Amino acid sequence: MKTEAHTDQGTVLRADQAALVFDMDGRMSLILPNVPEDMQLPASCRLMLAIAGRCDDPDWVAEMIEEGDRLMSGDDDGRRHRRHDHHQQYRSGS
Question: What is 14-31 written as a DSSP string?
Fold first, then answer.
């Protein structure tokens, strides 16, 4: 089931959703879902945590921007990548 809620202020997340948000001025917000204490965060949330943790490393950021530019240009060195629009969800087996 897909539920979307939008306001004049932006998109509203459900309690079980997560988001990594970057403002146009470069500020970042990490919003994590409500997860019971005895449950591990899903892999997609842990991935966002890892990304958020590396955003202060200028070398890593430059490398990731270069990778993103390369993927957007279609130059994927023969590797198979899928382009994602901002509404497509990251899915993980764990």
Answer: PTT--EEEE-TTS-EEEE
The H or E element spanning position 5 is: strand 5-7
- The pair of structure tokens assigned to 44 is 């997609």
d(CA 21, CA 60): 18
Question: 12 has which bridge partners?
Answer: 5
Whether residue 24 has pLDDT greater than 70: yes
pLDDT at 91 over 70: no
Residue 44's Cβ-count burial label (10 Å; 0-12, 13-18, 19+) is middle
